[in-house]
Amino acid sequence: MENTAQPRQSPLLRLFLGAFVIIWIVLAAFPFLWTLWGSFKVEADFFSKVDWSFALSGERTIEQTGSAFTGAGYYGAWVQEEFWRAAINTMIVTFFVVIISLTLGTLGGYALSRSTFRYTFWILIAALVFRAMPHITLVSGYLLPFFELNVWGILPTTIVVLVAINQPFTLWMLHSFFLNIPKDLDESAMVDGCTRFQAFRHVIIPVMWPGVITTGLFSFLLAYNDFAITTMLLSQDNQTMVPKIGSFLGTTQVQGNVMFAVAAVVSATAPLFILVLFFQRQIVSGLTAGAVKG
Amino acid sequence: MPHRAFFWFILPSALAMLLFIALPIVSVILQSVHIEHPKVMSEVETCGPFNCTTEMRVDAEATAELRQAQPLGKYIGLETYLNRNHLAFEVVKTQWQEREGFFSFIRGLYNLPFYKALAFTLTYTFVVTPLVIVLGFSIAVAVNAIPRIMRGSVIFVSLLPMIVTPLIGSLVLFWMVDANGVIGSAIQHIFNDPNLSLKASPFLTWIMLLVYGVWHSAPFAFVVFYAGLQTVPQDTLESAMIDGASRWERIRYVVLPHLAPLVTFVALIQLMDNFRVFEPVVGFNASASATSLSWIIYNDLFGQQQLFGSAAATSMLTILGVCILLMPVLVRTWRQYKVVH
Fold it and tell me: Does domain B117-340 have CATH number 1.10.3720.10?
């Protein structure tokens, strides 16, 4: 929408607002650029005791490796510490969490948007309370039963738990997306002789994709970014990227291999960066979807 | 939709939530009133060439057997809730009776692990949330004023602090404020104190965590408010202008009322998310001076000695806290619902 009524702002105000945006951009982007640049240096540069500008010029990196850039951190993380295993685990976990969350969520969200009975309200309120629950409180409930059932430490358990934890949010979001799809659409299909499920299958599914894609992005982010669940429920061998980075902190800080952790952090940020690059519009619309409905 | 169809549609999702959210809460309640079995000791007589000695040894077999038979442990009622690591009413009572002024009482309270975590969690929640709203709104207004063509890339960059994994985001900042990192050495330079370290001082650690919290969440508020600004009713703005309203008056009487529901929404989400603050404490390695409720649960569960009972009791208290926090929202939603129906 063009702000036609926008009056001409005074140049001083414009200048001030522009400066404010620039300051914010620097605050938002600088830490990532700095860490990306620094990940190709040696520790004596990135954490320079002598002069911070070494991290830019790479004095020590040139001394130690002969070149201003080194991939030693990446080699250490990916090959030596086998970060690739964690990357594969992350791929498996996020893929299944997104697929299963969306399947359950579309069915449930559709039902919630089409039913007019009182219990839908209570289900949504229960989901809101569940959404507010700190994840780690649930973990303390999982551990003992999972030890007893002997399912602790493996990927499927974590996937199921992440799906469940993701459900309240997925339900809310898809519920509000389905409310935007006119009821007449599936009701007329049912008048024409479809069952409820056929109406869902043939009429609703073809038009629901924008909402599902947006919700899927947020399911992905939840599974990808989770630390509390994955660090507590996965054994050392099955760790995904984020808990792996967490355990790097314990071990590498001592051995003086902080640069492994720095390289791993940059590697784990890259997919998120690409995600925002391609799906910026969906992410923005997803963030505001809940808000506009109130 | 008839009950039957609704039931089958919602079943998978409801089942997942019941099994992995509702049931674990029951499990947490049970665990919180039990305590791990102590190691079974037995008397062992060892005879040397000269004399026989009896000593107490850990009977590993019997211990394992007992744990097998009763995995929950021994029932102890509410004892865990009341011990020194949780509510510690006894200690608080004596401290209150022997207090030498209000501040020393607070300081004594702060030495108890649960209250220390509660203090930081509440401070974090109630400092970060309003700051996020104010900063997010300011960015939204500023971005709304820059040329349209630049807005896309500004939003792209703005999303980064929010989208990035909280642990990773806090690590990135942590490395920069390290005494040998770029911000850390800059601060040393500004204050001309080569020994200044953000990590050493509890006060500065708190500030650091709060700054991280605002940095991480401001983009969310920004995006919501920016979207809200796009839908401000232009007719109302125009008529306000014709009536001679100044720029400030237009913001005060047209734009802000339009954004009020969004403020409630952002505040609700932020309260929920900030109350569970956890990753920054790990990422900033700040547990010595700042712990959160989530962090003490994690600390109980992690490591060799897993204290299920203790962790469960803290979890219950945390869940109680969440319910209190959400109460105003729930009551309001219920009232609105009753009006509609």
Answer: yes
